[in-house]
Amino acid sequence: MAKGGRRRGREGWRMSTPARKRLMRDFKRLMQDPPAGISGAPQDNNILLWNAVIFGPDDTPWDGVTSEDVDSREEAFDERFQASDAGPSCWHKPDDTPWDGGTFKLTLQFTEEYPNKPPTVRFVSRMFHPNIYADGSICLDILQNQWSPIHDVAAILTSIQSLLCDPNPNSPANSEAARMFSENKREYNRKRHKQCTNNYPKHRTSSLFSLAPLY
Fold first, then answer.
1. Is 139 designated active site?
2. Is 16 part of any domain?
């Protein structure tokens, strides 16, 4: 999309509701000081709907992707998604941990009650994880009973990133994954590797910022 089109699409961001003002602050903070391994942005015409990516740990083709503005960040993401041969939702190094090198897409749906109420967060990528449901929704305390208005988008994504590497099998959303993680980590890791390398057709995908929502 042309820069002018992005600017026109973002005119709706300026509506001065408390939720939208807060989301603009969240976005500016995320762009100015992005935590390692995460990125996200609102859709052009809807600041209440965000697309995000959680990157795998260090030593991946995605490590260190940063940008000083939205336009160059979108171009960088698009180039890397277009170049990937591992499919739209996962880029994996089979000799490392189950999540190392992965690229995992999410959507965040906010309401006008944010930040008093959390967003609805779902993975677009298929996930085999003890705390992720089949529809991509996430069993995470800060998105439920431990939500606080102090949590911003960066905190949400960072918490989800931590959950990937440190599951809670005592609060399972996927009973098979929880059982396997607790009883047979080797098989759990094998299944994660297989999902990353085999589940997705090898084709090009659209930019992060034009992902269609799941809702």
1. yes
2. yes
b/e per residue 49-87 (b: at least 16 CB within 10 A): bbbbbbbbbeebbbeebeeeebeebbebbbebbeebebb
Higher pLDDT, 56 or 59: 56
DSSP notation for 90-130: ----TTS-TTTT-EEEEEEE--TTTTTSPPEEEESS----T
Query: What CATH code is carried by the domain that includes residue 170?
Result: 3.10.110.10
From the list 90, 139, 165, 196, the catalytic residue is 139
Instruction: Say what the pLDDT of residue 202 is.
Output: 39
pLDDT digits (tens, 9 = 90+) for 37-55: 999 999 988 999 999 999 8
211, part of any domain:
no
Considering the domain boundaries, does residue 168 fall inside one? yes
- How far apart CA 123 and CA 152 sit, in angstroms, is 18
Predicted structure pTM score? 0.70
Two structure tokens written together for 25: 């602050």
Q: What is the number of structural domains in the chain? A: 1
* Domain housing 129: 3-200
